[in-house]
TrEMBL record:
It comes from Amycolatopsis australiensis. The chain crosses the membrane at residues 44-64, 94-114, 120-136, 143-167, 173-194, 223-251. The keyword Transmembrane applies. It is a multi-pass membrane protein. This is 1,4-dihydroxy-2-naphthoate octaprenyltransferase.
């Protein structure tokens, strides 16, 4: 626990925001932009607003997780990136303030986006996203501690991220948009799965019952492999209707090291590159899908 007066440096705050997770926020918006272009409904400023909302949400959820896990003591022996509260470099109150500020910014920007789109029912979806960000590890019974984190990531940074970006521009979605949403959601969930695979020993010790601790080491590795395969199956299916989308298959080699690490039994810090490479493959897939849908 941080001592009173503990003050993290700027670089530590940046690391605490977990910049390696940013592709999880950027990819759904990029894929959504491509789907909006395919519907002849692209709006650059609505796309920028959607991106800022997504980035604010992921920074907010990262700081919120840091705070909630830190005050529970579940971050004290973690292998991954710096935890501000768990390592004692920042006071819990400061991290809580940062989390609430980022989530508040997401809420304000989301309200602007809903207002200009005129689809007021989207406020409910935005509220669910913010509540989901907080209660992932916050509150008395955080759902991330009961094995529902992967479902939330799939919904919020897959379905909601992609389809929401399309809907605020086109007022409707398409089958291509839905396929992109599922693909990005699987990628994003794979990132969390690799993270939770790495943390199985410490999560069991701290009583955090993630899906990975429930599936066990072998089951979690198989889940990861299925999740990273789904986007490429969808690439082939989509390629029947949008042949240019087959270009997304060239991102598959980016996952070779990750697949070997996860499938080959890597543990602890050996799995950290898998998180990075999975996120980058997701972003590359989303960019190429957006380009392909533009034709």
């Amino acid at each position: 626990m941080a001592l009173n007066g503990a003050m993290a440096s700027l670089s530590e705050w940046i690391e605490g925001a977990r910049p390696r997770t940013l592709p999880n926020a950027v990819a759904p918006v990029v894929a959504g932009v491509g789907a909006a272009i395919a519907l002849d409904a692209f709006s650059w400023w609505r796309s920028v607003l959607a991106l800022l909302v997504s980035l604010s949400l992921i920074v907010g959820v990262n700081y919120a997780n840091d705070y909630s896990d830190g005050i529970r003591g579940t971050d004290e022996n973690r292998v991954g990136p710096l935890r501000l509260v768990g390592s004692g470099v920042a006071a819990p109150k400061a991290v809580l303030t940062a989390a609430l500020a980022a989530l508040g910014l997401a809420g304000v920007l989301g309200l602007v986006l809903v207002a200009v789109s005129g689809h007021w029912w989207l406020l409910a979806m935005g509220a669910l996203c913010i509540l989901g960000a907080w209660f992932y590890t916050g509150g008395k019974k955080p759902y991330g501690y009961y094995g529902f984190g992967e479902i939330a990531v799939f919904v919020f940074f897959g379905l909601a991220g992609v389809l929401g970006t399309v809907y605020v521009q086109a007022g409707r979605v398409s089958w291509a948009a839905l396929a992109c949403a599922v693909a990005v959601g699987c990628f994003s969930t794979a990132v969390l799965t690799a993270n939770n695979l790495r943390d199985i020993p410490t999560d069991i010790e701290s009583g955090k019952r993630t899906l990975a601790t429930r599936l066990g080491d072998g089951g979690t590795r198989r889940l990861y492999l299925v999740l990273v395969a789904v986007p490429y199956v969808l690439s082939i299916v989509l390629g029947v209707f949008h042949p240019f989308l087959l270009i997304t298959l060239i991102t598959a080699p980016m996952l070779l090291k990750s697949v070997r690490a996860v499938g080959g039994g890597a543990h602890g810090r050996e799995l950290i590159p898998a998180l990075r490479d999975t996120g980058l493959a997701m972003l590359a897939w989303a960019v190429l899908a957006a380009v392909a849908l533009s034709f």
